Structure formats: structure tokens, C-alpha cells
């Protein structure tokens, strides 16, 4: 192995240990918080999903909850211990299996966090809508944990050479899917919500429109309408130069390579959340129809609301395909070491060029000439 390759692999091991340490810090914090709740403390705990006390800022009466659910207490502690074992194995036995386990841990944390909820709730909270900040903080912490485990998986996976510097053009199919991912939140989300904010009952009944104006302020409605399509514009970075190299106007980073995980992880998390939300929402929709809680006439009156389920699903799929194209385009190339032959020579052949010409010239002459 060349000195350059050995140096790069050594730095990769150091990065793996750094990611592992960050994962352990995250797990220790989460387990300590759960043990605090088990002991009777309620700092940071929320009961808004189990009570009707209508006080999201105070955790919906979390201080008065006596019996802690298993999923929030010992169940979460057990998962934390299991993930700690995953971290130890990832550092001790680096390779494909360790990386797979770390990726699964990252996916678990991100699914539990359900970041799509954050995409809508945080803008609404900043616009003045009463929100459960304890729940939002817990979800943000889980997202951070998922990112840390994804970084650990990337650092402990099969060793590859460094990323090829410069801009690597993405395939045409990646660009097409990126344009779909940008257009869907504009056409399927911003347009109908903008009309509803303006008082136009587009695809919904008058009663539903009145409910929207009663529950949402104008500022909250505008935030919910504009944030998703504006965030969707970031998808263009997966197919443009500024998604691989920082633009020249960025101080201190101009022209430098954008870390792959900085683009792949957020985009992959959002894509996974969108698809999950679309599938689960569609399952609830079918269940309501089957149980008779929802009639087809109601679906016809509020067809725009039902259509958003397909918008989320299509948005997630298109973003996921675009992210895959970006990841394949920018993946590290296998480094060619100086002490390894570039190709296997046929048995009995000579690597020396024949007299009177180079090897390439000799191969171009037909045996019959």
C-alpha cells in the first residue's frame, strides 16, 4: 500500500472513532434523560400525545403524569443500550456488516423522529402558533442522533479512495427527477394552500375553509405555505455545481468540495420521511373509508386534501431518486495503489513492447496482414 493510501486510511480510522465518540455522547444523554423520567422527574417530558389538557407549551400536564409509558422509559433505555453495542461493534469490526448495522440504527432514529413533522411545526411555531417545544426538541435530538449514526456508518464501511475533486455531472435522469421534486411542492402544496389563505375554497368545502381560517393565523398560513416549496429548491443542489463545490461567494469555503454527507443525509432523511408520511396517511385514509368514518362524497368535496397524500408520496420518491443519483455520482472511487498491478497480464505474455513499435501499435495490426 502506498504512503498516500496508508495515510488516508489512517485518517479514516480517526474519523470513525470521532463519529463513535459523538454517538456515545448522544446515547448517554438520551439514556440519562430516560432514567431521570423513570426516577420521577419530568423535565423535558411531554404528554401532549396522551392527554387533552391543551397546554402544549407546558407539555400538556406532563408534571401530573405518574405512570411513564414503557416506550418512553425502560423501552427507550433498552434501545439505547443496544445502540451502544452497535457503536462498539462498528469500531471493533469495521466493514460492510458494521456499516449496515449503523445505517439501520440511523434509519430507526430518523423514523422515530419523523422529521417531516418538524418541517411544518417549526415554521408554524416561529409564526406564533402554540407548539409543544418539548416534543420538537426531542425530535431534533433524534434527528441529530440519526445523522451521527449515518456518519459512523459512512466512516466504518468498506474502505475506498478519496472523493474525486471537482464537479461531476449527474446523469440526465437525476436532473429530471430533481425537477419533479421541485415542482411537486409548488403545484401540489403551495398553490392550494396559498388559495386557502386568500379565502378561495379550492378543492375543499366552505366549512373546511372556515376551519382553516379559525385555527391558523395569516402569518402561520403564509409560513406553512411558503416553507416547503422554498426548502424544496435545495434539491437543485443535488444536480448543480453548488451542490458539490461551495460557490465563490461563500467566505472561507469558496471552491472547496461539499462533504457528501452534508447533502446526502438531509435529503435522504426528508425523502424517507415524506414517503413514510404518504404511505401511513394513505393507509389511514383507506382505513377510514373501510370503517365508514369517511364517505366517498366527503372525498369528492375535499379532493384537494386527499390529493396532498399523493403529493407527499411523489415528492418523497422523486427526492429519493435524485439523492440516489447524487450519491452514485459523487461516491468515492477505488484508489489505485502504486504496488498493485493495474490489470492481470495473460499467462505467458510479456509486458515489454516488441521491437519496432509500441504495444498499442502492435495490437492494432491484424494477424492476417
From TrEMBL:
Biased composition (Basic and acidic residues): 332-346, 360-369
Protein name as catalogued: Uncharacterized protein
Keywords from the named record: Membrane, Transmembrane, Transmembrane helix
Transmembrane segments: 20-39, 73-91, 103-124, 136-155, 176-198, 218-239, 260-283, 303-328
Annotated organism of origin: Micromonospora luteifusca
Annotated stretches, region: Disordered: 328-369
Amino acid at each position: 500500500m502506498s504512503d498516500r493510501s496508508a495515510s488516508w486510511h489512517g485518517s479514516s480510522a480517526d474519523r470513525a472513532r470521532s463519529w463513535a465518540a459523538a454517538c456515545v455522547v448522544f446515547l448517554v444523554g438520551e439514556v440519562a434523560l430516560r432514567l431521570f423520567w423513570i426516577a420521577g422527574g419530568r423535565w423535558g417530558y411531554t404528554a401532549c400525545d396522551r392527554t387533552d389538557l391543551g397546554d402544549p407549551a407546558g407539555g400538556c400536564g406532563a408534571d401530573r403524569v405518574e405512570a411513564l409509558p414503557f416506550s418512553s422509559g425502560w423501552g427507550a433505555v433498552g434501545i439505547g443500550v443496544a445502540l451502544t453495542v452497535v457503536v462498539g461493534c462498528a469500531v471493533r469490526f469495521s466493514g460492510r456488516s458494521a456499516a449496515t448495522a449503523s445505517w439501520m440504527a440511523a434509519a430507526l432514529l430518523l423514523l422515530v423522529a419523523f422529521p417531516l413533522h418538524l418541517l411544518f411545526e417549526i415554521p408554524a411555531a416561529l409564526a406564533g402558533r402554540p407548539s409543544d417545544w418539548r416534543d420538537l426538541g426531542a425530535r431534533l435530538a433524534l434527528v441529530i442522533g440519526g445523522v451521527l449514526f449515518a456518519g459512523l456508518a459512512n466512516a466504518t464501511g468498506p474502505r475506498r479512495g478519496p472523493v474525486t475533486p471537482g464537479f461531476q455531472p449527474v446523469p440526465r435522469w437525476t436532473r429530471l427527477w430533481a425537477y419533479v421534486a421541485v415542482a411537486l411542492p409548488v403545484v401540489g402544496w403551495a398553490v392550494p394552500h396559498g388559495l386557502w389563505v386568500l379565502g378561495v375554497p379550492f378543492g375543499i368545502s366552505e366549512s373546511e375553509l372556515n376551519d382553516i381560517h379559525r385555527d391558523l393565523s395569516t402569518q402561520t398560513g403564509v409560513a406553512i405555505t411558503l416553507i416547503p416549496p422554498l426548502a424544496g429548491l435545495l434539491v437543485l443542489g443535488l444536480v448543480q455545481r453548488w451542490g458539490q463545490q461551495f460557490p465563490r461567494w461563500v467566505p472561507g469555503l469558496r471552491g472547496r468540495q461539499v462533504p457528501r454527507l452534508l447533502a446526502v443525509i438531509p435529503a435522504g432523511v426528508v425523502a424517507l420521511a415524506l414517503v413514510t408520511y404518504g404511505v401511513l396517511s394513505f393507509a389511514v385514509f383507506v382505513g377510514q373509508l373501510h370503517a365508514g368514518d369517511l364517505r366517498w362524497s366527503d372525498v369528492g368535496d375535499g379532493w384537494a386534501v386527499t390529493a396532498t397524500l399523493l403529493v407527499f408520496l411523489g415528492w418523497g420518491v422523486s427526492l429519493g431518486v435524485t439523492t440516489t443519483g447524487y450519491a452514485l455520482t459523487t461516491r468515492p472511487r477505488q484508489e489505485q495503489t502504486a504496488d498493485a498491478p493495474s490489470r492481470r497480464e495473460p499467462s505467458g505474455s510479456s509486458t515489454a513492447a516488441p521491437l519496432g513499435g509500441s504495444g498499442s501499435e502492435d495490437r492494432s495490426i491484424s494477424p492476417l496482414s
